[in-house]
Structures are given as C-alpha cells and as structure tokens.
Amino acid sequence: SALLLFISIMTMFMSGVVAIFEYDLKKIIALSTLSQLGMMMFSISLGLYELAFFHLLTHALFKALLFLCAGILIHGAGNTQDIRSFGGLSLNFPLVTVCMNLANLSLCGVPFLAGFYSKDLIVELACQYSWGIFVLLMMFICLSLTVLYSVRLTYLSFVGPYGGGTSISVCESDYSLVGPVVILSFTSLVSGPILSWLNFPAPVLIFLPVFLKWGALFFVGVSLLVMLSLQGVTYSYKWGAVSKLSGLMWFLPW
Fold this sequence. Notes:
Structural class: mainly alpha
Radius of gyration: 18 Å
Helix content: 55-70%
C-alpha cells in the first residue's frame, strides 16, 4: 500500500504540473483525468475502496461533460485544439461556457457540486491517517494544481483576449450537440448528494482540527486567487528547464 500511495501521489503531481504547461485542449483534459485516476488510486492505497468507486462515478459524469464541451469548442473553432488561438469564446458559446465552467468547478472540488462530495471526503479521511506531513502536503499541492490548470484553461478559452485563431462558428443551435451537455450539467449538479446517499447508508464521521478541516478549501481559494493574479504574466513561460521538462511531459514520450 505504501508503494501504491507513492505512485498515486507522484501521478497526481506530475500530471498536474504538465497540465499547467500544456496548450492542447484535449491533452489538458486527458492529463486532468490522469490526475483524478491518481486520486482514486490514492484512495485505494488508504483502504477507502468504496470512496474510490464513488469518486469514479462522480468524476465520470463531469469529465464526460468536459470532453463534450471541448468537442463543441473544437468543432466551432475550425477544428483547432490550441487554446492560444481561442479567447473570448464566452460570447460565441454562452451555454457551453456555463456548462464547461460548471464541470471545471466540480473538478476543483468547489462545495456542493458533484466532485466536492467525493473529493473532499477522500481528502478529509486522508487527513485522519497518520502518514506524515509529506503525504498531506503533497495531497494539498496536487489539489492546488487542479485549480491552477482549470482556471488557466477557463481564462485562455473564455475570458482572455482573442488569440487570432480560425473563424468561430456558433453551433449551439444544434440540439444533438447541446442536449447531452445540458443533461450532463444537471447530473453534475445533483449526482454528488444522490450517489452519496445511495453509497453510504450512514454519514461518515470525521474528527479533524480546524486548520485541517479548512485546509482543502483554503488551498482551492488561494490557488484560484494566485492564478487570477498571474494572468498575462506567467504565459511568457520563460522558465527554462522547468518549462521544457513539463512541456515535454517529463520526457515520458521519449
């Protein structure tokens, strides 16, 4: 279990760091999936099997929503996947913007969305285990990385200045595209508590000191503020070795 714990934490950390330096929309979402798989393995390494399955179910719903929204954006933006050529897409895709941000917030573990019910429970139960400060710190850092790449993706795609990509066509009038997105958005809102009630007949009892109880929310909030304050500064990315290492996915493809 110690080996699985180490591998899962390193999976979360490495995929999170790479996602921050990635510009391919599909790759960012795929790396985010890898990060959440690491979270599930982390849960299994602590012996929380039911919780890992619960996170698998909630994650499947909002990650399917993310991929569908990404598909609509790529389709509407002339089949380009580079988020540097996006920007200001919220004007052309208002509904997809709302749904994709809902999925992103759920992924970050924002309270009362689907991802919060499973992710926050894993984090809080992990805080009850005596694995030491290193494991807890790495877990919170990986939580922060999730928020960082999600905010970056949202900013570059929807909020930031237009990147000068191909002509944008509005395809939200196609109900075969938008219909499943709206349905999955609804499940991303309500599936957390419903699956929680179905999976756990009794509430999970957690005893934590106040600073650990607020730890997850604190890290999510700080990461959000940091990434918003760094917009337009960090995207030069002249970080030398770090940028090269992360941009090439830790040399794993080589």
